[in-house]
Amino acid sequence: MKRIILLLIPVLLVFSSIQNIYANPTELPVRKENTKLNIFTMYNYEEDGVAFVSLSDIYPYKPKKVIIPKKSGDEYNKISYTILDKYRENFLTDLKLHETDNLYLHDYLTGETITLPVKDLKAVARINRYRDENDAPFNFMDYMLGFDIPLNKIKLFKDSESVLVSIRAQNPFTNEALQFLTWKKIDQSMFPKTTKSVDKYIIKNFAEHYYDLAIGDTYLSEAYGYRYYMQDRLYDKDSTDYDGIFIRRLIIVEPETNKVVLDTFYTNSESTILSSFENDQKKLKMGVTGKLFVDTPLVTFGFSSPVFIDCGGIDVIGNQYIPINCDNRH
């Protein structure tokens, strides 16, 4: 199997804590997925000199028209196929894309965007990362469907791991660089009141005895006029697994109104690993925040890394989230 390097699994948001008190009398609305934006990451096929953006997460795998041509009775035996002519047209139609659209490569740490016209990109079906030539013949579902991007385009960025991808008519990204959040430890009593609906969700799905979990460190960061609070809940005071942290919770507060504008959490588990602090001149850094998208409020992410099943996502102030598509099939 070719050596495939995952260039980016941008990290999700994370955080934790809970107290037997709740936030505003008016509960936060249920977090909603932003369905207007499809954001992707890339895989590096160095032997082919390309990066590959898989669109399989949003592709309807029961298309009415053929995408990968084959003669009647033949089987799919190749590890990749170029999607050409009418098959390319079928592919774009199924995805509701057009040759006049663009693929946008955006580095969220610099705010730089590179624009590549879809009409100039090679559409490809590549066998997924859990198959190789020895597994032939293949089914249509075994293939990732997407676009190849010349590696020389990717190498224009200082760090490809901070690059996100979007394919559409207009560039959804701003030209603003996101900023790292710098944290300081605070007393646990300063952690804001939590949202009852989030408390109940954690208890139902992750920790039946959540309130009995020991409270770990509590942190505060400030950016863009908001206060970001983060707190850990521990497996056990003596546990060394995952640094003893089970759940990490994030609450963002608007100081003037004391309104909670985001309440979310993440866990150490088989599918995700909580991020660690970066010590930069004795400053505790973790996560990024800022204005990433033109028509979307401030975002924050980078507090955990998906390991299994999930691809991570981006949290949006106002209780939205934007999933990241990476074709992390299993």
The number of distinct structural domains comes to 2
Classify the beta-strand content into a percent band. 35-45%
Measure the end-to-end span.
16 Å
Round the Cα radius of gyration to an integer and report it: 22 Å
Count of discrete alpha- or pi-helical segments spanning 4 or more residues? 3
Quaternary organization: single chain
Mean pLDDT: 85
Low-confidence stretches: 1-26
Largest sheet: 12 strands, mixed
Could you say which structural class the secondary elements and strand pairing correspond to? mainly beta
Write the H/E string, N to C: EEEEEEHEEEEHEEHEEEEEEEEEEE
How much helical structure, as a percent, in the residues? under 10%
3D shape: elongated
Instruction: Count the E strands.
Output: 23
What would you say about this model in short?
This protein has 330 residues and is mainly beta. It folds into 2 domains: 11-35 and 177-325, no CATH class; 39-168, no CATH class.
What this model shows, in words?
The protein contains three helices and 23 strands. The chain is mainly β and 330 residues long. The chain has two domains: 11-35 and 177-325, no CATH class; 39-168, no CATH class. Strands 2, 3, 12, 13, 14, 15, 16, 18, 19, 20, 22 and 23 form a twelve-stranded mixed β-sheet that branches. A six-stranded antiparallel β-sheet has the order 1-4-5-10-9-6. A three-stranded antiparallel β-sheet has the order 8-7-11, with no helix packed on it. It is elongated. The two termini are 16 Å apart.
